[in-house]
Amino acid sequence: MPNHAEAMAQTLATRGVRLAFGLPGGEIVAFIDACRRAEIRFLLTGHEGSAAWMAQVVGQMTGVPGLCVATLGPGATNLITGVANAWLDRAPMLAVTAQIPGGVIDTLTHQRLPLDQLFSSVSKGSFSVGGEAVEIVNGAMDLANTPRPGPVHIALASDIAVAEYAGQSGPPARLATQPDSASVVDEIAGRVNACERPLILIGLAATPSATPFVRALIEKLQAPFLVTPKAKGVASDDHPLFAGVASGMAIDKEIIETIRSADLILGVGFDPVECDKTWFANAEVVALDTALMTAGDYRPLEAIGDLDSMLAQLAEAIDNPKPWPAELLEARRAAIQRAPLESHLGLSPLRLIEELRAVFPPDGIATCDVGSHKLVMGQFWRCYEPGTFLMSNGLSGMGFGIPAAIAAQLVKPEKPVLAVVGDGGMLMMVHDLALIRELALPVIIVVFCDRSLSLIRVSAERRGFTPYGVDFNPPDFARIAQAFGIASQRATSIRAVRACVETALAKRIPFLLEVPIDYREYYELV
């Protein structure tokens, strides 16, 4: 008979889990070894936070909950930020941690923490394995994928892990069927047909599978659309009806003005978790979604069900196109255009982003860390296909960019992958270079160096505070990368940037590019 760790690992493998990320500890080694024997590849990360972010992105990209693993105590607590990130980014994940053996947990206080309480506040559920290992794993996998997707935590005590599992390896539980939404979709269609200036707002629940249905709706309605950062590419940014990225990104006042120009917002998988303001609570919103988003003052008319089917039904029920007046649409599209800053103090962040986009393949995957550059990337990095832009935008956890790039490269080894990070975020995640080098992942990292936590600097100054505790002296990241065995260069011109990226793409090698930038442009954009 298998033990509990073996039963869990085999169930995960049967459910499609192929990778596990984490750090070992004495109390979790039985589970890690069981994963090895179940042909789930365990990848050692430099920090448990990176493991959780990698698991999140694997889950987000594949639809199979990503797996991260940690020991008890500090290993478990180090996972928390990454688990919280998956919770607010709505990504399916399974976090497995060790726990103190049940026979001594009341007496042994060393490393004893109430892990169920810690994880239940930032996950869809926290469960402890008793005698039902397979049932718990199957239930956790189903829960993680139920709309909205999110993380689930399982605690595995070290004595239970090696105890014989006497249960049955039955099939997974059946998921609940979707509610009948046809009548509400018809009501939404009536609202759309009655309005004059609808605006489509595409959000994170519009997954790549919904792309053809979203695009068909846009063509039928002929109304402008906004995307949220996590939905970039579901409708192409080069479409003549594209009106920008909402919300909380660069030039956000212009986006809010576009929203106010509409007399009806048609949400498609829109989740307010991506908004840093509450404009949506004061707007007329109807929504197609996979889960209820009603909360607080936000009271949209919502149709809940299978998004693809509802989009098709709505497109069929629209009587006539609803184009905006040409001059209004032209004005709102013109409002999101910006010219890069001319500077001799460093490269313009906007110019750098535009040049990286020009040289990077259209179907390549870009990941973005958190900071001022995130707001500019979110608004101005153009996406043409779904699943090609990854950003932390619910929790907005600094440090996300490089682990996300590693995970994306593992999931899509044939695709070029680019990580855009700030010098503050790079300093947090230097340890991830070890895994990139070990696996020879051809990830290109571009570090925007402004020697400051510039987003906080800008915010502080706008509120009348003297910038304090935001500036620092970053190390030579190019030389650090070389110490890890990764090719690198410091580039101070656009020509040098393009040459380095083109070389890295052609050779398919890991590469770190350090670029000094002039953060003064952020004062105009963020």
Shape: globular
Please state how the strands of the largest beta sheet are arranged side by side.
Answer: 2-1-3-4-6-5
Count of discrete domains: 3
Low-confidence stretches: none
Mean pLDDT: 95
In percent terms, what proportion of residues is strand? 15-25%
Computed Rg? 24 Å
Structural class by sheet pairing and helices? alpha/beta
What is the CATH C-level name of the largest domain? Alpha Beta
Q: Roughly how much helix do the residues carry, as a percent range?
A: 25-40%
The name of the CATH topology of the largest domain is Rossmann fold
Ends: how far apart? 59 Å
Quickly give the CATH architecture of the largest domain: 3-Layer(aba) Sandwich
In total, how many beta strands?
18
Largest sheet composition: 6 strands, parallel
What is the H level of CATH, i.e. the homologous superfamily of the largest domain?
Thiamin diphosphate (ThDP)-binding fold, Pyr/PP domains
Question: Helical stretch count?
Answer: 21
Give your account of this protein's structure.
The chain is α/β, with parallel strands linked by helices. It has 3 domains: 4-162, Thiamin diphosphate (ThDP)-binding fold, Pyr/PP domains (Rossmann fold, 3-Layer(aba) Sandwich), CATH 3.40.50.970; 182-334, TPP-binding domain (Rossmann fold); 349-525, Rossmann fold (3-Layer(aba) Sandwich). It has helices spanning 4-14, 29-37, 48-62, 74-89, 115-120, 133-145, 158-162, 182-194, 211-221, 252-261, 307-317, 326-334, 349-359, 372-380, 401-411, 423-428, 432-439, 454-462, 477-483, 494-507, 522-525; strands at residues 19-22, 41-44, 66-70, 93-99, 126-128, 151-157, 198-202, 225-227, 242-245, 264-268, 285-289, 301-304, 365-368, 389-391, 417-422, 443-449, 487-490, 511-516. The strands form 3 sheets. A 6-stranded parallel beta sheet has the order 2-1-3-4-6-5, sandwiched between helices. Helix 2 links the parallel strand 1 (19-22) and strand 2. It is globular and about 70 Å long. 53% of the residues are buried. The mean pLDDT is 95.
